[in-house]
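Shift notes (night). Ran Family 2 glycosyltransferase while the centrifuge was going.
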Amino acid sequence: MLNIVIFNWNYANFLKKLLNEIKTIVNKPEFRILICDDGSTDCSLDLMKNFISEFNAINVFIFESTEPNLGRKKPYQGQLESLNKIMNSKYFSTSDHYWFMDADDYCNFSTLGPEFFKKIKSKKICFTKVKNITNEGLESNLSIKRTVLESKNLFPSISVTSSIITSGEFLFNNKSYIFDERFDDVWLDSRLNMLACLLKPEDIEYLNEYIFRLIHGSNDSSKMSLLRILRKQIHAHDYFKYIHKNKFMFNSRMCILSILSKCYHKW
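Came back to this:
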């Protein structure tokens, strides 16, 4: 079974397109939709509950937070906590696959055919292509400059959350790495991309299917400050070294980041 795992926090303004696409797979036996709401304070949770009721959706389930989320000190922890809930629930199986999807993104699920399912079933992790869409409707392809297959000495270009499909077996085998709390600002997508570097090439697939990613104020990385970009690079370096048992990386960028990491943690 393919589980569509949707991460939502106050995305009521962006949910319409995703729910419209999910409508095409409601109650289909090959799909299960798991909605993880991180304590939304807008009407997005009501929108999803109304959707379930309207379409009598018996394959859509919501994981709700017990407390409203007015803003996390460490936002990256929201997705990790949601995934942990799923892995500790009856909806987790090592024989299933899990497609992660931010609630402001979407995919044309109705176009997915038998070949798609056959392909992902044989892999531990897959990455779809990504098409960015602005509020004005302008589209552009998000290119991956460095795949997980290209280097064992440098972390890959990160394929965004909604492009990642993993096997339950992959998640289970890497649980301690995925949920390690020592690496601030290393988001779920970054962790999964880097952990994929530990796999054999035959366990990985870059797919031709697209997900559509709406660019808006909350997810526009081009507006990230230079200081935060540097911090994220340092934390990504630390995590990548950690999952590789801190071995020396023969790469100039990793060497520079190693020096910066030592200075950063001492400071």
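The longest strand covers residues 204-214. The beta strands are 2-8, 31-37, 60-64, 97-102, 105-106, 125-133, 139-142, 164-167, 204-214.
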